[in-house]
Write a structure and sequence with these properties.
The complex is a heterodimer of chains A (272) and B (261). Chain A has eleven helices and one strand, in the order ααααααβααααα. With 272 residues, chain A is mostly helical. The longest helix of chain A has 26 residues, at 136-161. Chain B has a domain at 75-253: Cytochrome Bc1 Complex, Chain C, CATH 1.20.810. Classes of the chains: A mainly alpha (272), B mainly alpha (261).
Chain lengths: 272, 261
């Protein structure tokens, strides 16, 4: 059994109350309307009041036509028409017996029946599920604006207090000791102390980069819930930590000759 | 006669403010901004319709849809890292254009130009500092953005393609920073780049050839400086802007940012 939506129930309830209140004042008002819509024959006696919108003479004519038809069918007889005959008889007879209540009326005097309520999903192909959305302006743009302002302020203030390095003029004949790459390549330079340059400078970073590119094609797990992808998360964390630790060692723990030092003992050999 | 003039009520501050407001709102400039056909014909009142117009009737519509998922505006989800990477790129473009006015990519002039920029150009030192720190910050922001995207599983279908674009953008960011590193032509720049390019030479098959093309010779010299200057100010920004455009377009094509978790 299909459940009836709440708003329809409410509407029915309201209609019932309305008809009850108007029925109390002027008897036949509601009855006339309901009967008028279902069976013309019944309404002619019950309500010839102003409530009925169908003119009196039309109702009379319709009744006469129906009576005529019923008589004709009865005269014709025959097995095939028997059912129709009975129905016609019932329809014709009911008004007289019921006294105002139409033949098809339900237990509460209803003349209309709610056959079924079809939920939208069952016959319509609903592709988009509703998403909780907010306006980009102001909700997103204000945040972005504040972030941009904060970023500018930070860069500005940092630049006021800390100057970018500018060492002596470049001299190809004088190699500084140590010579260090920019900080983001110091992990590679650190690897250079352990492996052949091709492995340290090309193979390992190349494989790291290819692994990154292929990540969505290797990781076929469709979930984005952290608890479902502990392996991927740990692997990435190891990967990131690998580079972070190497960069930090290369930056702060390597001194002259790119030998291992302790920055708090031997000083800092690092320029940004 | 004098009395009559004195009796005339003196203008209060309120009257002056009102007359100024009237003058401004009656001016041609005001009426050309708030004219029929402009975004806000009668000023901005906060309504859903006007909120939509702010995006729809401006260039921002290329970047943002009118509405976004509620969870997407939470700062704790993205930490604004992608947006900040883009913003730092804009900041670097602006400061970089300023620096270009005072810099010649020649081995005889480059270092002196930087020195002069720092000592005799108004705000020269400040802008150079901002360019330098902004560049390091952008490398950091792009890197953290990538980590954030990975930990949210945002590289998964339908966003695989955008993830690949993102890895390309990370590489381009590193290259942009690295090519800029040489330009001051001081000891730090020269030897940092020497270490980096020596490593590149060990790439199998075409390593030496690529190194030769990038350096414009067997060793770092004046050709290298010119090449890296062009790469830094024109070639790589051009390429990265194209990839950024694809990146931002794909974000919207794939249904906005990922999540919620």
């Amino acid at each position: 059994m299909t459940e009836i939506p709440e708003h329809l129930l409410k509407r029915a309830q309201a209609a019932r109350e309305k008809s009850a209140s108007s029925g109390g004042d002027a008897d036949g008002g509601s009855a006339a309307e309901s009967s008028g819509s279902a069976s013309g024959a019944a309404s002619s006696e019950a309500a010839s009041s102003a409530a009925s919108r169908i003119p009196e003479h039309l109702l009379q004519r319709s009744k006469a036509a129906k009576d005529n038809k019923a008589e004709n069918q009865a005269a014709a007889g025959g097995g095939a028409v028997a059912v129709a005959d009975k129905v016609g008889a019932v329809v014709a007879a009911a008004p007289a017996a019921g006294g105002g209540v139409p033949a098809g009326a339900g237990p509460g005097g209803h003349t209309q029946r709610l056959l079924t309520v079809v939920k939208p999903g069952s016959i319509q192909d609903v592709k988009a599920t509703p998403v909780d959305k907010v306006h980009t302006w102001p909700h997103l743009l204000v945040g972005e604006f504040v972030a941009a302002l904060a970023c500018t302020a930070f860069t500005f203030l940092f630049s006021v207090w800390v100057n970018a390095p500018l060492l002596q003029l470049a001299n190809t004949n004088e190699t500084p000791n140590p010579s260090k790459a920019p900080w983001y390549f110091l992990g590679l330079q650190e690897l250079l102390t352990m492996f052949h340059p091709m492995v340290a400078g090309v193979t390992i970073p190349g494989m790291g980069l290819i692994a990154l590119v292929l990540a969505p094609f290797i990781d076929r797990n469709p979930s984005n819930k952290p608890e479902d992808r502990k392996f991927a998360t740990s692997l990435m964390t190891v990967h990131l930590m690998f580079w972070a630790v190497l960069v930090m060692i290369g930056s702060f723990f390597r001194g002259p000759g790119f030998l291992f030092i302790l920055p708090w003992r031997d000083g800092l050999f690092f320029e940004l | 006669m004098a009395k009559i003039i004195d009796d005339k009520p003196r203008q209060t501050v309120k009257d002056r403010v009102n007359s100024t407001v009237d003058a401004v709102q009656g001016s041609q400039a005001w009426n050309s901004i708030f004219r029929p056909g402009s975004i806000f014909r009668k000023g901005y009142t906060d309504s859903p319709r006007n909120r939509s117009y702010v995006i729809m009737n401006s260039v921002l519509y290329h970047l943002h849809p009118v509405k976004v998922k509620r969870h997407a505006v939470k700062v704790s989800y993205t930490l604004c890292l992608g947006g900040l990477s883009f913003f730092l790129f804009i900041l670097l473009t602006v400061t970089g254009i300023f620096l270009m006015f005072f810099y010649r990519p020649e081995t005889t002039a480059a270092w002196n130009d930087i020195q002069n920029l720092q000592t005799s150009v108004t705000f020269g030192l400040l802008v150079r500092n901002m360019h330098r720190w902004g560049a390091h910050l952008m490398v950091l922001a792009v890197f953290l953005h990538m980590a954030r995207v990975f930990y949210h599983g945002a590289y998964k279908p339908p966003r695989e393609f955008n993830w690949v674009i993102g890895v390309i953008l990370l590489t381009l960011t590193l290259l942009l920073s690295f090519t800029g590193y040489l330009l001051p032509w001081d000891q730090l720049a020269l030897w940092a780049v020497a270490v980096g390019t020596n490593m590149m030479g060990f790439t199998p098959v075409f390593g030496q050839e690529v190194r030769f093309v990038l350096l414009g010779g067997a060793e770092i010299g004046s050709e290298t400086l010119l090449r890296w200057y062009v790469l830094h100010v024109l070639f790589l920004p051009f390429v990265i802007v194209i990839f950024m455009a694809i990146h931002f377009w794909r974000v919207r094509k794939d249904g906005g940012i990922s999540g919620p978790l």
